[in-house]
Amino acid sequence: MIINLVKTKEIVFRRPSACSSLPSCLTGIKLVVSAKLIGVTFCSNLKFDEHVKNILTICSQRCYLLKCLKGQGLPAKQLSVVFCAIVMSRILFALPAWGGFLSYDLVAKFDAFFQKKLFAGVTAVSLDVCLCYCMRRMLNCSVK
Fold first, then answer.
1. Eight-class DSSP state of 14
2. Contact, 51 vs 58, CB < 8 A?
3. Which of 19, 25, 34, 69 has the fewest CB atoms within 10 Å of its CB?
4. Would the CA dihedral through 35, 40, 43, 44 be positive or negative?
5. Tens digit of pLDDT for each residue in 3-15?
């Protein structure tokens, strides 16, 4: 197997307080502080601030699409289906992998996002339903 050194990146996971010296990088391989793997942004300090920022940016853009669909006369029930398909699916993707690392601040950002979208009328899905759905997915329970 031949490794493409142009596409190869190195990330070192460590505690922020660890002051150990690391060996130098391999020649031609760039050391990065964050890497996106299968749609999840991992940072070297195992915080998911950047990942949450990316998710909320994408979801806000998709909610603009929902707002346009609502303006075109899409009924509330179908709007909720589209919301679950294009917004909730993005939030829930790989949630069991990164959800346990969320701080209260990051959870508050998701809460503010849902409150804003519910208040704007972009979705007919209530905040409680969204959060319940997310928590069930996080705990790997089946949602009916």
1. -
2. no
3. 19
4. negative
5. 887 888 888 887 7
pLDDT tens, 85-94?
Answer: 888 888 888 8
The number of C-alpha atoms within 13 Å of 142 and in the hemisphere containing its C-beta is 1
Angle at which helix 49-71 crosses helix 104-120, to 10 degrees, equals 10
- b/e per residue, 30-46, with b = 16+ CB within 10 A? eeeebeeeeebbbbeee
Which of 90, 89, 86 lies closest to 74, judged by CA? 86
pTM, 2 dp: 0.73
- Give the Cα separation of 35 and 109 in Å (integer): 22
Distance CA 36, CA 42 (A): 6
Name the residue ranges covered by the structural domains of the chain.
49-138
- Rounded CA gap, 20 and 38, in Å? 29
